[in-house]
From TrEMBL:
Lineage, top ranks: Bacteria, Bacillati, Actinomycetota, Actinomycetes, Kitasatosporales
Domain of life: Bacteria
Official protein name in the record: Uncharacterized protein
Organism: Streptomyces luomodiensis
Length: 146
């Protein structure tokens, strides 16, 4: 398991990166014009898991998210909480949703957002479907993308 310090270092490296000119995926980092999204941690999948195991892992991921939010709050102040339900509804109705929210809204219910140095930094926990892994992720975007 990676530490909070490792996660903060990963976030800082992504914040320093230029955004790619087109959508790309390299390992656990996806990017495109105006954004990066990276998995900080991914659980096992849950194809044959019992509900107790799923709940344990979710609690673990939420605790890790909470610790990371606390560290970044000390650094940058309190985050906004962005509920992605509206983006999911717009996407389902075929309306445009800007990247990376167009993808994130399908599996992340909310993001903790900080606005730092002309970019936003978002953290969340998501799961694409109940059999799929949990993901602790960071999204970084150009200020005008949310």
């Amino acid at each position: 398991m990676t530490s909070t310090a490792d996660h903060v270092a990963s976030i800082d490296r992504l914040r320093a990166r230029d955004f790619p000119g087109q959508r790309t995926v390299h390992g656990r980092v996806a990017g495109g014009p105006g954004f990066h999204v990276a998995d900080l941690r991914v659980s096992e999948d849950f194809w044959d898991a019992d509900l107790t195991r799923v709940e344990e892992v979710l609690e673990e991921f939420e605790a890790e998210l909470s610790a990371l939010v606390q560290v970044l709050t000390l650094r940058w102040g309190a985050p906004e909480v962005l509920d992605l339900t509206d983006a999911l509804e717009r996407s389902a109705m075929g309306e445009p949703v800007p990247p990376p929210l167009d993808t994130l809204c399908g599996y992340v219910p909310e993001l903790h957002i900080w606005r730092v140095d002309g970019r936003w930094v978002g953290l969340g926990v998501g799961q694409g479907d109940r059999e799929l892994p949990f993901q602790l992720l960071v999204a970084i975007g150009a200020e005008d993308t949310i």
